[in-house]
Design goal:
alpha+beta, Arc Repressor Mutant, subunit A, 3 strands
Length: 107
Amino acid sequence: MAHRDIPADRVFQALGDATRRAIVERLSQGPCSVSALAEPLGITLTAVAQHLQVLEEAGLAATEKVGRVRTCRIDTAGMDTLQTWIREHRPMWERRLDRLGEIFESE
């Protein structure tokens, strides 16, 4: 998959929905059809397609239509975006937690 610049906000927004997180978890097990995704979620194919569109825009899923079957698979571009965001913000979080620990220790 080609590297794409995907805003972290888009990825966080996509993962903010429980149904979309469930779809990503299912796709992490391997490719499957839209109907296979819809069945355990108890939602319509149209609803799954709408969720997939959000996931595709966030670089978390990709779909391909062969004949009448649309197959979905995981896309790692969105996860790469999250990994970069976490790596960039981690030092700040660690400094803040260290300061908080120092405050608790001094009391």
